[in-house]
């Protein structure tokens, strides 16, 4: 009886590993289903797959464990993340139900299916437990290789054909033929003139020499800031910095000091008038 | 611990994946749930391989992985081309087969 039990159970270490990592795997799977954003789902699924790789290693499937990490978490999940980035990370699933009560029915179906599967396993007579030790005696990779290239050689060849077909299929599906001719630079310029858009290059940002940062609007001759000088992206993000009066006053103080040191008396009239007018405008 | 527990875990993961396919409407997440189901099957295969003491289960799991890789490549290409034509990855919007 005890011998049978010993053959039937695994070591305590593996049991602890199973219960700890199994919980993580189930939580990861649940998060995959219930996270609203696709990126979070993908990351949770990657975690579950790594846990499964550890289980493969614990079950003596060393080759599959490594392949799981390299192919699944390394290649497939990264491909998923690439597509999520293409489609848009911020696009969260809408929570509006299109079919009434579909979510609860789906949960009910899932529950029923799970109960069916688990009671099925519980009733099956799984008396046989041989352990993988003997099969792995000559090495796991060698054992798999000798089986693949003898008994499963046709399946292996067909898998190769499948992979080639999939690669060609993906290229055909994502390749897009250009239907119209790309417009030349001359045509684009003529169109711009016809539409009456702003033709010359846009004015540079920055206020005098102290603020040539791109997020500060340049001043027009009358001292008012011009929105046109700041890049469109910054304008749409609302990241334009104000030309504060304090900075202007600083600048004026600096110039006055410079003038005193240089012992200049007359101030250039254009500068002076620009300051005064900007002050008036701000008031 | 009885190694049959691995089968229970596989059944649980498969069920979660199947429920996800029914609940979610984002095509990418549905696809991820399918991957989860495939992985659960692989775990069951590996556990069976250990129970029976031969490597056939592991080889089937290996073939499953190759087929899953091919499936992901084609499936994601379909999702990308759907997104290009409809600007949405929701399975509700793709009610017609034509693009």
Automatic annotation (TrEMBL), chain A:
Chief location bin? membrane
> At the top level of its lineage, which domain of life is listed?
Bacteria
Q: Name one GO molecular function term.
A: NADH dehydrogenase (ubiquinone) activity
User: In this entry, which stretches build a coiled coil?
Assistant: 241-268
Q: InterPro entries attached here?
A: NADH_UbQ/plastoQ_OxRdtase_su6 (IPR001457), Nuo/plastoQ_OxRdtase_6_NuoJ (IPR042106)
Enzyme class per UniProt: translocase
Transmembrane segments annotated in the record for this chain: 16-35, 42-63, 69-92, 104-124, 144-173
Location(s), subcellular: Cell membrane
User: Pfam families given for it?
Assistant: Oxidored_q3 (PF00499)
Q: Would you tell me the Gene Ontology cellular component terms? A: plasma membrane
Q: Recorded E.C. number(s)?
A: 7.1.1.-
> What catalytic activity is recorded?
a quinone + NADH + 5 H(+)(in) = a quinol + NAD(+) + 4 H(+)(out)
Q: What family name appears in the similarity comment? A: Belongs to the complex I subunit 6 family.
Job of this protein: NDH-1 shuttles electrons from NADH, via FMN and iron-sulfur (Fe-S) centers, to quinones in the respiratory chain. Couples the redox reaction to proton translocation (for every two electrons transferred, four hydrogen ions are translocated across the cytoplasmic membrane), and thus conserves the redox energy in a proton gradient.
Quote the protein name from its UniProt record: NADH-quinone oxidoreductase subunit J
Q: Which species is listed as the source?
A: Streptomyces viridosporus (strain ATCC 14672 / DSM 40746 / JCM 4963 / KCTC 9882 / NRRL B-12104 / FH 1290)
């Amino acid at each position: 009886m005890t011998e049978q039990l010993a053959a039937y159970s695994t070591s305590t270490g593996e049991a602890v590993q199973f219960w700890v990592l199994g919980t993580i795997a189930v939580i990861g799977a649940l998060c995959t289903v219930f996270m609203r954003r696709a990126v979070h789902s993908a990351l949770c699924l990657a975690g579950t797959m790594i846990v499964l790789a550890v289980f493969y290693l614990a079950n003596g499937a060393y080759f599959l464990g490594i392949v799981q990490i390299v192919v699944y978490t390394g290649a497939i999940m990264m491909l998923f993340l690439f597509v999520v980035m293409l489609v848009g990370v911020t696009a969260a699933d809408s929570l509006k139900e299109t079919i009434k009560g579909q979510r609860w029915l789906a949960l009910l179906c899932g529950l029923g299916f799970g109960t069916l599967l688990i009671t099925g396993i519980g009733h099956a007579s799984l008396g046989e437990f041989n352990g993988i030790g003997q099969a792995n005696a000559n090495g796991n990779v060698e054992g798999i290789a000798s089986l693949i290239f003898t008994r499963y050689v046709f399946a292996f060849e067909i898998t190769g054909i499948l992979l080639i077909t999939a690669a060609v299929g993906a290229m055909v599906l994502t390749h897009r033929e250009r239907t119209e001719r790309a417009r030349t630079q001359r045509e684009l310029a003529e169109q711009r003139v016809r539409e009456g858009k702003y033709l010359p290059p846009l004015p540079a940002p920055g206020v005098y020499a102290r603020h040539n940062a791109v997020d500060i609007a340049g001043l027009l001759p009358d001292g008012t800031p011009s929105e046109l000088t700041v890049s469109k992206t910054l304008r749409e993000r609302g990241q334009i910095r104000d030309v504060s009066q304090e900075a202007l006053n600083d600048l004026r103080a600096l110039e006055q000091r410079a003038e005193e040191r240089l012992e200049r008396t007359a101030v250039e009239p254009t500068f002076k008038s620009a300051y005064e007018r900007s002050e008036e405008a701000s008031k | 611990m009885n190694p049959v527990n691995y089968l229970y875990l596989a059944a649980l993961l498969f069920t979660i994946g199947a429920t996800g396919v029914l609940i979610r409407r984002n095509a990418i997440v549905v696809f991820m749930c399918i991957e989860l189901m495939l992985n659960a099957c692989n775990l069951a295969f590996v556990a069976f391989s250990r129970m029976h003491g031969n490597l056939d289960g592991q080889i089937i799991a290996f073939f499953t992985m190759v087929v899953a890789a091919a499936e992901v490549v084609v499936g994601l290409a379909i999702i990308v081309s759907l997104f290009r034509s409809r600007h949405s990855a929701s399975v509700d919007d793709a009610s017609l087969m034509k693009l």
